[in-house]
Amino acid sequence: MALRPVQVNIKALDDSAVGRFWAEALGWGVSSEGPGVTNVEPGGGFVWPDPVAVCIDVVTVPEPKTTTKNRVHLDLATTSATHQAELVARLRALGATPADVGQGDVPWTVLADPEGNEFCVLEPREIYRDTGPIAAVVVDCADPRAMARFWGEATDWTLHEVTDDHAVLRSAKGVGPYLEFLRKPGVKTVPDRVHLDLLPYPGDDKAAEVARLRGLGATDLDLGQGDVPWTCLTDPEGHEFCVLGRS
After folding, report:
1. Pfam families this protein is in (predicted)?
2. 81-94 vs 15-26: helix axis angle to the nearest 10?
3. For the segment 73-109, what is each residue's pLDDT rounded down to a tens digit?
4. Which one-letter DSSP state was computed for residue 100?
5. Residues near 30 by Cβ (< 8 Å), separated by ≥ 6?
6. How far apart are CA 3 and CA 65, in angstroms?
7. Per-residue pLDDT tens for 182-198?
8. Cα separation of 245 and 51, whole Å?
9. Which residue stretches of the chain are H helix?
């Protein structure tokens, strides 16, 4: 039994506008499963859920983002310095704005999407040469080793590296984006606008998976979601995530 990360959920006041931004940013397409939800997915006959692709779901909420930095963000991959510069320029033309999260003088560029969700456009790195447009889903945390233990057990992804400062996981198939946990100061103070959604494999029991996650240290989360087919949880450091119903 294990779960697979299938999408990054982004909350927005205007799901359609934010969805269009991310579709243009990634070179993907958009669709909608219903009012208030915009799905951002690769083109070319893509069928969700893909065994390894991590898509984006933009969901409407009534509250705007606070000024607090999200503790989950996306890193975008580039193939050359020219590509990085062109991508940054294109994203700014689409409505992205420069963001200062205390990064100082670094080779990557920190931006925010039209509703203030921070993300990074990385300089070319060999490790991300085959990830697709999303290099990594990055999570700020206090204890990368503890996060590696939880998420390594929660999902079927492979642990590639773990130190006191960072942990790195990726699909066992060796494709798609990485999931990275970075040691950062501070503690979580507000709900994130960005979180991961996990999905059971066909034939696996969702309720049993949720019970297994609780045994690993996950906690139930009540966001006022009511009777829905997914289950909202937090990991041991309070990062929200959802276990979706089977597709």
Report:
1. Glyoxalase_6 (PF18029)
2. 160
3. 999 999 999 999 999 999 999 999 999 999 999 999 9
4. -
5. 19, 20, 23, 38, 39, 40, 41
6. 29
7. 999 888 888 899 999 99
8. 16
9. 15-26, 81-94, 144-154, 206-216
